[in-house]
């Protein structure tokens, strides 16, 4: 018994040139409180950090800067080089991951 399956050719150029209807939008901000010892702040599943603020100031991402981002396959984490001070607000603006 022979089975033949025919699939028409696809032209992807038009599909890729079309503007995407799904855009990663900002989600509601996440707020944490610093306690001068916690350096890692985990985001819920499906969220990735877009912008991070500590004590009201935008902080920079990078190994030699204020924080780094880690991802274990499920959860993104913002890891500060120096723990935010006690009572300092940590605000993370996430996007869809």
**End-to-end distance:** 47 Å
Overall mean pLDDT stands at 90
Strand percentage, roughly?
35-45%
Q: What does the overall shape look like?
A: elongated
**Residue share in helices?**
under 10%
Structural class: mainly beta
What does the main sheet amount to?
A: 4 strands, antiparallel
* Annotation, overall tally of beta strands: 7
Strand order of the largest sheet: 1-7-3-4
Low-pLDDT windows of residues: none
Q: What order do the helices and strands follow? A: HEEEEEEE
**How many DSSP H or I helices?**
1
Q: Rounded to an integer, what's the Rg over CA atoms? A: 21 Å
Polypeptide structure, described:
The structure is a single chain. The protein has 97 residues and is mainly beta. 6% of the residues lie in helices and 36% in strands. It has one helix and seven strands. The chain has one helix at 12-17; strands at 30-33, 40-42, 47-54, 57-58, 67-71, 76-80, 89-96. The strands form two sheets. A four-stranded antiparallel sheet has the order 1-7-3-4, with no helix packed on it. The protein has a three-stranded antiparallel sheet with strand order 2-6-5, with no helix packed on it. β3 and β4 (57-58) form a beta hairpin. The protein is elongated.
């Amino acid at each position: 018994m022979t089975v033949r399956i025919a699939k028409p050719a696809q032209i992807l150029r038009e599909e890729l040139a079309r503007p995407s209807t799904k855009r990663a939008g900002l989600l509601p901000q996440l707020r944490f409180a610093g306690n001068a010892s916690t350096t890692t702040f985990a985001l819920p599943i499906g969220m990735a950090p877009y912008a991070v603020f500590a004590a009201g100031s935008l902080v920079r991402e990078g190994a030699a800067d204020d924080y780094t981002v880690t991802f274990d396959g499920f959860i993104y984490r913002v890891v500060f080089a120096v723990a935010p001070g006690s009572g300092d607000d940590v605000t993370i603006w996430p996007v869809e991951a």
